[in-house]
Each structure stands twice: as C-alpha cells, then as structure tokens.
Amino acid sequence: MKWPAITYHSATSLADVWAAFAAHGPSVTILAGGQTLLATLAYRLSEPGMLLDITRIPELRGITLQGQMLRIGALTRHVELGRDLLVRQHAPLLAQAVPLIAHPAIRNRGTIGGSLAYVDPAAELPACAVALDAVVVAASAAGERRIPASAFFTDLLQNALAPGEIIVAVEIPIQPSLAAIDEVARRSGDYAMAGLAAAMRVHDGRVLAPRLVYFGVGNGPVLAGAACRALEGRPLTAESIAAAQAALTTDLDPPQDLHGPPEMKRHLARVLTARVLNAWLRPTEMAA
Ligand SMILES: Cc1cc2nc3c(=O)[nH]c(=O)nc-3n(C[C@H](O)[C@H](O)[C@H](O)COP(=O)(O)OP(=O)(O)OC[C@H]3O[C@@H](n4cnc5c(N)ncnc54)[C@H](O)[C@@H]3O)c2cc1C
Q: Are residues 67 and 14 in the same domain?
C-alpha cells in the first residue's frame, strides 16, 4: 500500500517544533527513528497531515550525569544506549535491554524517545524505565514538565503527553544495586511473548524497594504491586520468590494475543520471575 499524501518538515530547533504545532496543530506527527512510524504509514494505520522530523535538533541528543541522575536525550538510539559508558556504569539495565530489541538495523535508528512514546506493550525500554523509576521529561512551547514513568504509559499505544508536547529526555536515578531483564521470544529479535525488568536494593540481607515490571502481558508495562509487596522487607529466598510468583495471579490479567492465551502468559511471567530472582540467590536456595 502507498503512503498517504503528507507534508514533511525537518526541524532544527525546539522553537521550530513549537512553531509547527502552533501552525498545524494535531495534524503534526513527530518523526524520530521512523522504525515504527514509517511502517504504520505504509499500512495506513496512521495518516498524519505533517511529518515533523526532529532528528536534527541538537538539544534532544546526549547522555549526561547530573548529580544522582542520568539524563538521556530523546534521540539517543538503542545502539548508543548499549555502548555508552555512563549508561553501562549508572544504568546497566538499559544496556542489558538493548540486545533484546529487534535487530541491529532497527537498533541503529530506533530512539529511546520513540520507544517510550509509542508504548508497544511488548517493548523493553518502557518496562526498564518503570523498573528504574525514571522520569520522562516532556516539553512544549509552555516549558518542561516531568512525568514519572509509572504514570506515563496510560494504555495500549497511549501515553501521558498532552497535545503540543514531545519527549525531550528521560531522567534515570542512578541504578539500584540489583537490576536485570529477561524475556521469552519465539526468535531472537522478535518482540517478547513475555518479559520482566526487575530492580531492587538489598540492605542487611533484606529486599528494599523491589520493582518487578512485566512486559508483553498487558496494555503497557505492568508494575506488579502484589509481587513487590511479597518481597519487600524480606530476605530473598526460595520462599519469598515463590510468594512473589504466586502474587502474580493478582497482578497480571494478560489479554489473549497472537502468542497465546492468558494462562500461558502468566506461566511465562512466573518462569521469568524465578529466572531473574534466582540469579540473585546462592545456588542452593533456588526456587522452581
Ligand atoms: C521489525 C521491528 C521489530 C521491532 N522489535 C522491537 C522489539 O523487539 N522491542 C522493542 O522495544 N522495539 C522493537 N521495535 C521498535 C523499535 O525498536 C523502536 O523503538 C520504535 O520504532 C520507536 O522508535 P523510533 O525512534 O523509531 O520512533 P518513530 O517510529 O519515529 O516514532 C514512533 C512513535 O513515537 C512518536 N515519537 C517519536 N519520538 C518522539 C518524541 N521524542 N516525543 C514524542 N513522540 C515521539 C512518533 O510520533 C510515533 O508516534 C521494532 C520495530 C520494528 C520495525
């Protein structure tokens, strides 16, 4: 199928973006890496009036350490996340996620801003953002506002951006001591059938602030509150891991999708919970 007729404009500053929104309103669609958007145009799943290319805006690039926070520009490509030394040191969960995302050609162009904005329920980076308690920095002609990642992903392919806003950066608190991601996919590079991004601290042998975030099992990343409560304040043991697995019955209500029925997804989530948390146990204490 051919693309719909579209106007294209390449912005070179944020001022250009605000001017385009002022002149063309909701018909403007932001183009970043284009890895999802261009496919949706080809299938006529979206029909914007104007494609506004933001890839030449310098303010949207760069990764900097600002106090206890890593600020990652919205145009940071997946491949850059995977190899950046600040990310590897302060938010290694993100670097660990990169090889799980699609294939090199897509990782070379896809951006973190595009991945967060699109809210594919099986995407890795939205789940990592929630697990790491990140903040999405949105901006419009009126200025910046900060949206916790846990409130940003509002529904299937829906986010908390207001009309006229774009993502300019993501701010990540320096990573807790333990964090990991794992997933089950049919083939390497496919979107996950189910996945888990997990982060926590351990103090005096007890789990603090656990964040178990599942993807591919809901309308967006799912922070599993009951499973987290099953771990909070307890030693990480085979028993507490089993309690977290059991609590997923409350936390997860996966829709049927092309991969299979809800019970299969719940099963995969339990398996991933054991895989990720067992890796932080001594071998003799493993949960099934
Ligand atoms: C075959 C294939 C396989 C893939 N597999 C995976 C996978 O396994 N895991 C995974 O996580 N992803 C996967 N992706 C998605 C890919 O990794 C990108 O993350 C995704 O395409 C979005 O990033 P982008 O920069 O290409 O955004 P674009 O395609 O340019 O834009 C996507 C959407 O986000 C909006 N947008 C982009 N940037 C901003 C911004 N800064 N502010 C506001 N809105 C913005 C656009 O308007 C559009 O609606 C796959 C893509 C393809 C084509």
A: no
